[in-house]
Predict the structure.
Amino acid sequence: MSLTLRICTILIGLGVGALATLIMPKRYPGSVISTMVLGIGGAFTMGILGPRLGWYGEGEALGFLASFTGAVIVLMLYWMGASRRTA
């Protein structure tokens, strides 16, 4: 993964994390920073796994969508796990 793609992945993760903070319910247990970090983690996970699994090539537009989807999935899993602990 080139430096440019890494920077783009970080920006996607930050954006998804910030957007998720606005979308999540008021009782969401995470802070804005933790949500952004989880978004970056999800974006990197899909940014690395996608090309290795043959879903898309490095630098393709589908990589943006996959990174976005990975970040959203990680945030949803965290939210579901955290809401179970507090309930």
About this structure: The first helix runs from residue 3 to 23.
